[in-house]
Amino acid sequence: MTVVNELSLAVAPGEIVALIGPNGAGKSTALKAILGLLPHTGRVLVDGQVVAELEPRARARRLAYVPQRSQLAAGMSARNVVAQGRFAHLGELARLGSADQVAIAAALTRCSADDLAERPFTHLSVGEQQRVLLARALASEAAVVLLDEPTAALDVGHALALLALLRALADDGKALLVVLHDLDQVARLADRVILLDRGQVRAQGPVASVLTAEHLAPSFGVVPVPASALGFAVA
């Protein structure tokens, strides 16, 4: 069964592209296909290289993924979860070296997760787990980061802090493809937007050209409200 059809996109270094759409539009499926986790036709390229032709470590050095929810069930510490991000850089002995430890510590700090480092991952709240999963992605030092609804479990303060961090990562030269449901966050964060609906691209381009009544009403049933705190209302 085809879930997403004829999706074509590009994300440049320093850019944040938001992938939006109603529930069931195919957003998470698209991310997993890009990562090579789901079968697909067509090609995904990173720095001109076909992702499907890269061995796993080479792929992990280029693409990092922050899932919407973690499936980790083992009671390992948050630090050890972040250490998984160094998989792509380990040698044959698979032992963490000093450079790996520095990368892990830096990722925890950047995600404001230092205080979580020694706690069991499974004992963390969903929002805390999300910060640790982002730190794991940063520890990989991949140039491209794909995130599936990273703010979904965060309170307002942590969500705003995360959006600021994502912008800082883009300013550092990373390319970010982010699935978001909150259209106000899309307007605050994204450089460009791709609107998916029933597996088809309905619109894409700069934020102001996509978050319009013309595009949002058919897919979401909402229209923008100028100068409103909420920003959108039921159409």
In total, the number of domains comes to 2
Strand order of the largest sheet: 4-5-6-1-7-8
CATH superfamily of the largest domain: P-loop containing nucleotide triphosphate hydrolases
Q: How many extended strands?
A: 10
Name of the top-level CATH class of the largest domain = Alpha Beta
Note the beta-strand portion: 15-25%
Can you put this structure into words, describing what you see?
With 235 residues, this protein is α/β, with parallel strands linked by helices. The chain folds into two domains: 1-62 and 144-235, P-loop containing nucleotide triphosphate hydrolases (Rossmann fold, 3-Layer(aba) Sandwich), CATH 3.40.50; 71-141, no CATH class. Helices cover 34% and strands 18% of the residues. The chain contains nine helices and ten strands. The strands form three sheets. The chain has a six-stranded mixed beta sheet, sandwiched between helices. Helix 4 (98-110) packs across helix 5 (126-139). The longest helix has 16 residues, at 156-171.
List keywords for this structure.
globular, Rossmann fold, six-stranded mixed beta sheet, two-stranded antiparallel sheet, 10 strands, 9 helices, 235 residues, single chain, alpha/beta, 2 domains
